[in-house]
Design a protein that fits this description.
Oligomer: single chain
CATH topology of the largest domain: Rossmann fold
Strand content: 5-15%
Number of domains: 3
Order of helices and strands: HHHHHHEEHEHHEHEHEHHEHEHEH
Radius of gyration: 22 Å
Number of helices: 16
CATH architecture of the largest domain: 3-Layer(aba) Sandwich
Largest sheet: 5 strands, parallel
Structural class: alpha/beta
Strand order of the largest sheet: 1-3-2-4-5
Low-confidence stretches: none
CATH class of the largest domain: Alpha Beta
Protein backbone atom coordinates (compact mmCIF):
# COMPACT_ATOMS: atom_id res chain seq x y z
CA UNK A 1 0.00 0.00 0.00
CA UNK A 2 2.77 2.40 0.97
CA UNK A 3 5.07 1.16 -1.76
CA UNK A 4 2.43 1.99 -4.38
CA UNK A 5 3.53 5.64 -4.18
CA UNK A 6 7.26 4.87 -4.28
CA UNK A 7 9.36 4.23 -7.40
CA UNK A 8 9.63 0.51 -6.63
CA UNK A 9 5.89 0.33 -6.15
CA UNK A 10 5.16 2.17 -9.37
CA UNK A 11 7.54 -0.06 -11.33
CA UNK A 12 6.57 -3.39 -9.78
CA UNK A 13 3.12 -2.44 -8.50
CA UNK A 14 1.16 -4.73 -10.75
CA UNK A 15 3.47 -7.67 -10.07
CA UNK A 16 3.18 -7.36 -6.29
CA UNK A 17 -0.44 -6.16 -6.31
CA UNK A 18 0.42 -2.85 -4.63
CA UNK A 19 -2.71 -0.78 -4.05
CA UNK A 20 -3.39 2.91 -4.24
CA UNK A 21 -6.82 2.72 -2.64
CA UNK A 22 -7.58 0.79 0.51
CA UNK A 23 -11.37 0.87 0.69
CA UNK A 24 -14.17 -1.02 2.44
CA UNK A 25 -14.52 -3.48 -0.45
CA UNK A 26 -10.88 -4.49 -0.09
CA UNK A 27 -11.28 -4.84 3.67
CA UNK A 28 -14.29 -7.07 3.13
CA UNK A 29 -12.28 -9.22 0.74
CA UNK A 30 -9.47 -9.52 3.29
CA UNK A 31 -11.94 -10.55 5.97
CA UNK A 32 -13.60 -13.13 3.74
CA UNK A 33 -10.45 -14.88 2.63
CA UNK A 34 -8.37 -14.61 5.80
CA UNK A 35 -11.23 -15.98 7.88
CA UNK A 36 -11.55 -18.92 5.50
CA UNK A 37 -7.91 -19.88 6.04
CA UNK A 38 -7.69 -23.06 8.13
CA UNK A 39 -4.39 -22.08 9.80
CA UNK A 40 -3.40 -25.70 9.16
CA UNK A 41 0.10 -24.79 7.83
CA UNK A 42 -0.09 -27.37 5.04
CA UNK A 43 0.72 -24.83 2.32
CA UNK A 44 3.81 -23.79 4.27
CA UNK A 45 5.26 -27.31 3.98
CA UNK A 46 5.43 -27.05 0.18
CA UNK A 47 5.85 -23.29 -0.37
CA UNK A 48 9.05 -22.80 -2.46
CA UNK A 49 9.73 -19.55 -0.59
CA UNK A 50 9.16 -21.07 2.85
CA UNK A 51 6.29 -18.71 3.66
CA UNK A 52 4.19 -19.83 6.63
CA UNK A 53 0.83 -18.56 5.43
CA UNK A 54 -0.76 -19.40 8.78
CA UNK A 55 1.49 -16.82 10.47
CA UNK A 56 0.55 -14.26 7.83
CA UNK A 57 -3.12 -15.06 8.39
CA UNK A 58 -2.83 -14.62 12.13
CA UNK A 59 -1.10 -11.24 11.65
CA UNK A 60 -3.83 -10.04 9.26
CA UNK A 61 -6.57 -11.29 11.60
CA UNK A 62 -5.03 -9.31 14.46
CA UNK A 63 -5.23 -6.15 12.33
CA UNK A 64 -8.82 -6.91 11.35
CA UNK A 65 -9.60 -7.56 15.03
CA UNK A 66 -8.45 -4.03 15.84
CA UNK A 67 -10.93 -2.82 13.24
CA UNK A 68 -13.74 -4.82 14.83
CA UNK A 69 -13.79 -7.44 12.09
CA UNK A 70 -13.69 -10.98 13.45
CA UNK A 71 -15.58 -14.24 13.06
CA UNK A 72 -18.61 -14.10 15.34
CA UNK A 73 -18.28 -17.82 16.01
CA UNK A 74 -14.67 -17.48 17.18
CA UNK A 75 -15.30 -14.28 19.14
CA UNK A 76 -18.25 -15.83 21.00
CA UNK A 77 -16.23 -18.97 21.74
CA UNK A 78 -13.32 -16.93 23.13
CA UNK A 79 -15.73 -14.90 25.25
CA UNK A 80 -17.29 -18.07 26.67
CA UNK A 81 -13.88 -19.50 27.49
CA UNK A 82 -12.70 -16.37 29.26
CA UNK A 83 -15.96 -16.03 31.24
CA UNK A 84 -16.67 -19.66 32.18
CA UNK A 85 -13.41 -21.57 31.69
CA UNK A 86 -14.75 -23.65 28.80
CA UNK A 87 -16.01 -23.12 25.25
CA UNK A 88 -19.45 -24.62 25.87
CA UNK A 89 -20.31 -22.28 28.76
CA UNK A 90 -20.74 -25.18 31.21
CA UNK A 91 -21.40 -24.27 34.83
CA UNK A 92 -19.61 -26.10 37.66
CA UNK A 93 -22.87 -27.88 38.53
CA UNK A 94 -23.34 -29.04 34.93
CA UNK A 95 -19.76 -30.31 34.75
CA UNK A 96 -20.22 -32.37 37.92
CA UNK A 97 -23.57 -33.76 36.80
CA UNK A 98 -22.27 -34.86 33.39
CA UNK A 99 -19.17 -36.30 35.03
CA UNK A 100 -21.34 -38.38 37.39
CA UNK A 101 -23.26 -39.67 34.37
CA UNK A 102 -20.00 -40.66 32.63
CA UNK A 103 -18.78 -42.49 35.71
CA UNK A 104 -22.06 -44.44 35.95
CA UNK A 105 -21.69 -45.46 32.31
CA UNK A 106 -18.12 -46.63 32.95
CA UNK A 107 -19.34 -48.81 35.81
CA UNK A 108 -22.13 -50.30 33.65
CA UNK A 109 -19.92 -50.89 30.60
CA UNK A 110 -16.58 -51.85 32.16
CA UNK A 111 -17.60 -53.11 35.59
CA UNK A 112 -15.33 -50.84 37.61
CA UNK A 113 -16.01 -47.90 39.87
CA UNK A 114 -13.82 -44.93 38.96
CA UNK A 115 -13.22 -42.17 41.49
CA UNK A 116 -12.46 -38.67 40.20
CA UNK A 117 -11.24 -35.70 42.19
CA UNK A 118 -12.83 -32.38 41.27
CA UNK A 119 -11.27 -29.06 42.30
CA UNK A 120 -9.00 -30.93 44.72
CA UNK A 121 -5.19 -31.08 44.95
CA UNK A 122 -3.54 -33.93 43.05
CA UNK A 123 -0.36 -34.80 41.20
CA UNK A 124 -1.93 -34.13 37.79
CA UNK A 125 -4.50 -31.70 36.41
CA UNK A 126 -6.31 -33.17 33.42
CA UNK A 127 -7.78 -30.79 30.84
CA UNK A 128 -10.47 -32.42 28.69
CA UNK A 129 -12.42 -30.77 25.89
CA UNK A 130 -15.74 -29.34 27.01
CA UNK A 131 -17.24 -30.99 23.91
CA UNK A 132 -16.31 -34.35 25.48
CA UNK A 133 -19.12 -33.67 27.95
CA UNK A 134 -21.63 -33.66 25.11
CA UNK A 135 -20.77 -35.36 21.81
CA UNK A 136 -17.46 -37.14 22.51
CA UNK A 137 -18.37 -38.92 25.72
CA UNK A 138 -16.24 -41.99 24.93
CA UNK A 139 -13.17 -39.75 24.68
CA UNK A 140 -13.85 -38.49 28.20
CA UNK A 141 -14.60 -41.98 29.52
CA UNK A 142 -11.41 -43.29 27.91
CA UNK A 143 -9.31 -40.70 29.72
CA UNK A 144 -10.99 -41.28 33.09
CA UNK A 145 -10.69 -45.06 32.80
CA UNK A 146 -7.07 -44.80 31.71
CA UNK A 147 -6.08 -42.71 34.74
CA UNK A 148 -7.87 -45.21 36.99
CA UNK A 149 -6.25 -48.26 35.39
CA UNK A 150 -2.79 -46.71 35.46
CA UNK A 151 -3.14 -45.68 39.11
CA UNK A 152 -2.59 -41.99 38.39
CA UNK A 153 -3.56 -39.34 40.95
CA UNK A 154 -5.40 -36.66 38.96
CA UNK A 155 -8.00 -33.95 39.33
CA UNK A 156 -10.38 -31.96 37.15
CA UNK A 157 -11.12 -28.27 37.56
CA UNK A 158 -14.58 -26.73 37.14
CA UNK A 159 -12.81 -23.41 36.67
CA UNK A 160 -11.07 -24.72 33.57
CA UNK A 161 -12.52 -27.64 31.63
CA UNK A 162 -11.14 -27.05 28.16
CA UNK A 163 -8.30 -28.05 25.83
CA UNK A 164 -9.08 -25.52 23.09
CA UNK A 165 -7.54 -22.08 22.85
CA UNK A 166 -9.37 -20.10 20.16
CA UNK A 167 -7.08 -17.18 20.97
CA UNK A 168 -4.75 -18.82 18.46
CA UNK A 169 -7.35 -18.07 15.79
CA UNK A 170 -8.25 -14.57 16.94
CA UNK A 171 -5.43 -12.53 18.46
CA UNK A 172 -2.21 -13.20 20.47
CA UNK A 173 -3.56 -11.29 23.47
CA UNK A 174 -6.38 -13.79 23.88
CA UNK A 175 -3.99 -16.68 23.25
CA UNK A 176 -1.88 -15.49 26.18
CA UNK A 177 -4.85 -14.67 28.42
CA UNK A 178 -6.36 -18.14 27.99
CA UNK A 179 -2.91 -19.72 28.36
CA UNK A 180 -2.42 -17.94 31.66
CA UNK A 181 -5.76 -19.31 32.87
CA UNK A 182 -4.23 -22.81 32.63
CA UNK A 183 -1.18 -21.71 34.59
CA UNK A 184 -3.20 -20.03 37.33
CA UNK A 185 -5.49 -23.03 37.91
CA UNK A 186 -2.52 -25.39 37.99
CA UNK A 187 -0.87 -23.24 40.64
CA UNK A 188 -4.07 -23.03 42.70
CA UNK A 189 -4.43 -26.83 42.76
CA UNK A 190 -0.75 -27.42 43.51
CA UNK A 191 -0.29 -29.98 40.73
CA UNK A 192 3.07 -31.07 39.35
CA UNK A 193 1.90 -31.90 35.83
CA UNK A 194 -0.85 -30.57 33.54
CA UNK A 195 -2.10 -33.07 30.96
CA UNK A 196 -3.96 -31.98 27.86
CA UNK A 197 -6.64 -34.07 26.16
CA UNK A 198 -7.29 -34.53 22.46
CA UNK A 199 -7.08 -31.26 20.50
CA UNK A 200 -4.76 -30.27 17.65
CA UNK A 201 -4.63 -26.48 17.85
CA UNK A 202 -5.04 -26.71 21.63
CA UNK A 203 -1.89 -28.85 21.82
CA UNK A 204 0.09 -26.47 19.61
CA UNK A 205 -0.90 -23.53 21.85
CA UNK A 206 -0.28 -25.54 25.03
CA UNK A 207 3.09 -26.94 23.94
CA UNK A 208 4.52 -23.70 22.61
CA UNK A 209 3.12 -21.15 25.06
CA UNK A 210 1.62 -22.77 28.16
CA UNK A 211 4.28 -25.39 28.98
CA UNK A 212 7.12 -22.80 29.06
CA UNK A 213 4.97 -20.67 31.41
CA UNK A 214 4.19 -23.69 33.58
CA UNK A 215 7.88 -24.54 33.84
CA UNK A 216 8.58 -21.04 35.12
CA UNK A 217 6.42 -22.08 38.08
CA UNK A 218 7.94 -25.53 38.63
CA UNK A 219 5.12 -27.38 36.83
CA UNK A 220 5.40 -29.43 33.66
CA UNK A 221 2.97 -30.23 30.86
CA UNK A 222 2.26 -33.19 28.59
CA UNK A 223 -0.31 -34.69 26.26
CA UNK A 224 -2.40 -37.62 27.46
CA UNK A 225 -0.87 -39.71 24.66
CA UNK A 226 2.54 -39.36 26.32
CA UNK A 227 1.13 -40.92 29.48
CA UNK A 228 -0.69 -43.71 27.62
CA UNK A 229 2.45 -44.67 25.69
CA UNK A 230 4.49 -44.73 28.90
CA UNK A 231 1.86 -46.83 30.69
CA UNK A 232 1.80 -49.38 27.86
CA UNK A 233 5.59 -49.64 27.76
CA UNK A 234 5.81 -50.05 31.54
CA UNK A 235 3.05 -52.63 31.63
CA UNK A 236 0.79 -50.48 33.79
CA UNK A 237 -2.12 -51.02 31.43
CA UNK A 238 -3.06 -53.70 28.92
CA UNK A 239 -5.15 -53.25 25.80
CA UNK A 240 -7.15 -55.86 23.95
CA UNK A 241 -7.36 -54.84 20.25
CA UNK A 242 -10.03 -57.51 19.69
CA UNK A 243 -12.43 -55.23 21.56
CA UNK A 244 -12.37 -52.79 18.65
CA UNK A 245 -13.43 -55.46 16.17
CA UNK A 246 -12.31 -56.33 12.64
CA UNK A 247 -12.94 -52.81 11.40
CA UNK A 248 -10.33 -51.20 9.15
CA UNK A 249 -9.35 -47.92 10.79
CA UNK A 250 -7.42 -45.11 9.14
CA UNK A 251 -5.35 -42.76 11.28
CA UNK A 252 -5.35 -39.20 9.96
CA UNK A 253 -3.05 -36.78 11.80
CA UNK A 254 -4.67 -33.63 13.15
CA UNK A 255 -2.68 -30.96 11.34
CA UNK A 256 -1.31 -29.10 14.36
CA UNK A 257 -0.09 -32.30 16.01
CA UNK A 258 2.37 -32.71 13.14
CA UNK A 259 2.84 -29.13 11.91
CA UNK A 260 3.65 -27.36 15.14
CA UNK A 261 3.11 -29.94 17.88
CA UNK A 262 5.66 -32.77 17.38
CA UNK A 263 3.03 -35.35 18.34
CA UNK A 264 3.55 -37.88 15.57
CA UNK A 265 4.71 -41.30 16.76
CA UNK A 266 2.78 -41.49 20.04
CA UNK A 267 -0.69 -41.86 18.49
CA UNK A 268 0.63 -44.47 16.06
CA UNK A 269 2.12 -46.46 18.94
CA UNK A 270 -1.26 -46.46 20.69
CA UNK A 271 -3.09 -47.45 17.49
CA UNK A 272 -0.85 -50.51 17.14
CA UNK A 273 -1.95 -51.69 20.58
CA UNK A 274 -5.60 -50.61 20.50
CA UNK A 275 -6.90 -51.98 17.16
CA UNK A 276 -6.31 -55.04 14.97
CA UNK A 277 -6.34 -53.39 11.56
CA UNK A 278 -5.35 -49.85 10.71
CA UNK A 279 -3.85 -48.04 7.77
CA UNK A 280 -2.45 -44.64 7.02
CA UNK A 281 -2.23 -42.70 3.77
CA UNK A 282 0.62 -41.15 1.86
CA UNK A 283 -1.22 -37.96 2.89
CA UNK A 284 -0.28 -38.36 6.52
CA UNK A 285 2.24 -36.82 8.87
CA UNK A 286 3.33 -33.42 7.45
CA UNK A 287 1.15 -33.97 4.36
CA UNK A 288 -2.05 -34.59 6.31
CA UNK A 289 -5.28 -32.91 5.25
CA UNK A 290 -6.98 -30.65 7.77
CA UNK A 291 -10.44 -31.77 8.88
CA UNK A 292 -11.80 -28.54 7.41
CA UNK A 293 -12.91 -27.05 10.72
CA UNK A 294 -9.70 -25.42 11.91
CA UNK A 295 -9.24 -21.68 12.28
CA UNK A 296 -12.90 -20.82 12.70
CA UNK A 297 -14.33 -22.88 9.82
CA UNK A 298 -16.68 -24.68 12.24
CA UNK A 299 -19.16 -21.84 11.81
CA UNK A 300 -22.52 -23.07 10.47
CA UNK A 301 -22.57 -20.59 7.59
CA UNK A 302 -19.34 -22.11 6.24
CA UNK A 303 -20.66 -25.69 6.17
CA UNK A 304 -20.97 -25.93 2.34
CA UNK A 305 -17.33 -24.88 1.95
CA UNK A 306 -16.27 -27.24 4.76
CA UNK A 307 -18.03 -30.17 3.07
CA UNK A 308 -16.24 -29.41 -0.19
CA UNK A 309 -12.85 -29.33 1.54
CA UNK A 310 -13.57 -32.44 3.62
CA UNK A 311 -13.92 -34.52 0.46
CA UNK A 312 -10.09 -34.58 0.36
CA UNK A 313 -9.63 -36.67 3.51
CA UNK A 314 -12.94 -38.51 3.10
CA UNK A 315 -12.06 -39.78 -0.39
CA UNK A 316 -8.59 -40.64 0.89
CA UNK A 317 -10.17 -42.86 3.57
CA UNK A 318 -12.32 -44.60 0.94
CA UNK A 319 -9.30 -45.20 -1.32
CA UNK A 320 -7.59 -47.05 1.51
CA UNK A 321 -10.60 -49.21 2.28
CA UNK A 322 -11.16 -47.63 5.69
CA UNK A 323 -14.42 -47.97 7.56
CA UNK A 324 -13.50 -45.76 10.50
CA UNK A 325 -11.61 -42.45 10.54
CA UNK A 326 -9.52 -41.75 13.64
CA UNK A 327 -8.81 -38.07 14.29
CA UNK A 328 -7.90 -37.42 17.94
CA UNK A 329 -8.84 -33.75 18.07
CA UNK A 330 -11.91 -32.01 19.50
CA UNK A 331 -12.27 -29.70 16.49
CA UNK A 332 -11.82 -32.61 14.07
CA UNK A 333 -14.56 -34.58 15.82
CA UNK A 334 -16.85 -31.55 15.92
CA UNK A 335 -16.29 -30.96 12.22
CA UNK A 336 -16.80 -34.62 11.35
CA UNK A 337 -20.11 -34.58 13.19
CA UNK A 338 -21.16 -31.82 10.77
CA UNK A 339 -19.79 -33.14 7.48
CA UNK A 340 -19.71 -36.95 7.70
CA UNK A 341 -23.51 -37.39 7.52
CA UNK A 342 -23.55 -35.31 4.32
CA UNK A 343 -20.53 -37.10 2.84
CA UNK A 344 -21.86 -40.56 3.71
CA UNK A 345 -25.08 -39.68 1.89
CA UNK A 346 -23.19 -38.31 -1.13
CA UNK A 347 -20.93 -41.35 -1.48
CA UNK A 348 -23.32 -44.03 -0.25
CA UNK A 349 -20.96 -45.03 2.57
CA UNK A 350 -21.20 -45.49 6.32
CA UNK A 351 -17.87 -44.09 7.47
CA UNK A 352 -17.63 -43.65 11.25
CA UNK A 353 -15.15 -41.65 13.29
CA UNK A 354 -13.67 -41.16 16.75
CA UNK A 355 -10.61 -40.10 18.64
CA UNK A 356 -7.93 -42.42 20.04
CA UNK A 357 -9.02 -42.38 23.69
CA UNK A 358 -12.38 -43.76 22.52
CA UNK A 359 -10.51 -46.82 21.21
CA UNK A 360 -8.42 -47.03 24.38
CA UNK A 361 -11.66 -47.07 26.39
CA UNK A 362 -12.99 -50.08 24.53
CA UNK A 363 -9.65 -51.92 24.54
CA UNK A 364 -8.62 -51.33 28.17
CA UNK A 365 -8.54 -54.47 30.26
CA UNK A 366 -9.62 -53.61 33.80
CA UNK A 367 -10.16 -55.70 36.89
Amino acid sequence: IIKAEKPSGKIFGKAVNALKNFDENYLEMLYTYYWQCLLCRRCGTICPFGVDQASVTRAVRSILYELGMASRFVAVTVDSMERTGNNMGLTPAAIKNILDFALREIKEEKGVEVKVKVDQPAQILYLPSSSDFFVNMDTLKGALLFFHAAGIDFTLSTKLTEVANFGLFLDPRHLRLIGDMYVNVAKELGVRLVVLGECGHGWRSFKNYVIPRLRENGIDGAHIFHLVVDAIKRGKIKLNPEANGDIIYIYQDPDLYVRGGDLIEEPRFIMKHAVKKWVESEYSRAKTWCCGGQGGMLADELLPLAIQYSKLWYEDAIRHGAEWVVRPCSICKAQLSHVVPHLNKMYGKNIKYSGIMDLVYKALIVK
